Predict the structure.
Amino acid sequence: MKKGQLQIQETGFVIFIVVVILLIGFVLFYQFQIRSIENLNEKYQEDKFEDMISFVPSMPELSYSVRGDQKGSIDFYKARAFADVSDNEYYKNLFGYKKITLKVSADTLVLYDNKLSSYTGIRKITSPVSVYNAWDEKYYVGVLEVERYV
Amino acid sequence: MFKKGQIETFGLVIIVLLVVFIGLFALLFSRSGGDDRNVYLNNKAYNFANALAKADVSGTNFGDLATSCCLGEEVDCNTLRNFVSGNMNFVDEDSGFVMECSGGEEIRVGDCFLGINSESFRRSGKFEFYVVICEK
Amino acid sequence: MEKRGQGIQFNWIFVIVAGALFLIFFAFFSVRYIDLEQSKENGKIVRALDSSILGAKGISQYKVFGEDFSDFVLEYNCERLYINEDQFIESSSIIFVEDKSEGPFSMWSQDYEKPYLVDTVVYLWNFDLKFYFSGVSEEFMDEIPNELKITSEGNADVLVYFGGAEPNPNKKVIAFNGNQIWYVNEDKYFNYNGDNVFVYGAMFSSPDVFECSKNYLEERKNSLKELYIKKAQYFGSKCAEYGQIIGALRDDNINSIISLNEALDNHGCEVIY
């Protein structure tokens, strides 16, 4: 090969390699940005899940009230009734694939349970909650468990 | 053995491979940094403090028990401590309970006092208490 | 001599081609980068909207959403809120909104009680939308937020009639007759129980969204009704009013439910709600 031809080939090859490096760099940057957007969404979903320890006790289905005046506790007998009515489309749309349990004294109430058919794990959060038992007119400290099927 | 141009080209190929591998590792390990669980722990601390504030204990309510303890009834203070301590088992994280009587006495239960605090629950002129939860 | 001249020409061609390749590459990169940044912004908007809706459910109120963001389009299919056909969030709230509309939005939330609280319903509509009402009662107009833009029939975007109506290709037309809601242009009818919450719902949403949100609201109301009946059954032996309130709940007799609930409280019995 002549010297000039060799020189052009070499220059061409260098430019090619630089373009390849730039392309790879761009692809990696793009993937990183996409991942960053997905991470933000995942974090938001996680925050919403953790917020359930505030949201669930304040739902009209569970919160204890006297003539519309909220008392800041779960009504044990409403919770017991809710366990029987929660298996419908509205609550499945609201909660998704989760299990919500209330434990107070010796009682364990499964308030809602919608299993993901082939789940690989369970993510669980718990919180102490105030529970009012209207039968003996006493307030107890119970535990609310919310599990998410993944 | 190698001509000059070939050595330089070989160097460029090495750089490309390095960039690819570093990028792949960066993608693999790029997770959102540091979970901020303060909101969750704050909600949990509030729920716990609220549950204590409303609870019925040994035939009386928590507020009356705390008032009696602040007035010097040591038996009631022990009942209160046992009640709070027993319910701390419901919290996965380390937690603490701090009550300040209006006379200046302080009751502490638990093993975490520097963490996320709940809002204070108070009975005017008698006591004020809050719950603390520490991140695991 | 010729060969050298040809060599210089060839060099220039080579430089131009290489330069063009780089330019194309960077132009492509810039466009993709702008798309990515827009996607991030869309994610930010949809999360902010979801938070705003959850906040609105805490207390009945009116507020504006989206003034701080650049133009965006909201789509809702009763399960997901989409921003600019890109980022989305699964919505867990009952919302009445057009299936596709542009921001910024007016947001209004209202308790739906029967007489127990069923839900705090959220309405969303484009901030600039103007309304015209015909045949409405004063009570109805008193409930509407003052910020709702009301104008003449000619200038309005949404025409609301209590009575008959004619289709209009340029405006949204809703008519209420007896226990029916009529989307006039689409010629779709829905039965409703006379509650204003469904009147507002129809004003602010498209027929498909109205139908599914109404169904969700009624499903939740029925679940709560069953729940309160069960609670009354648990306590049945303690007070006579429980048997009566069960009947009132089954009949959806609001006035009876209110008075019987009060009677329970007055007799020292556990209230239903």
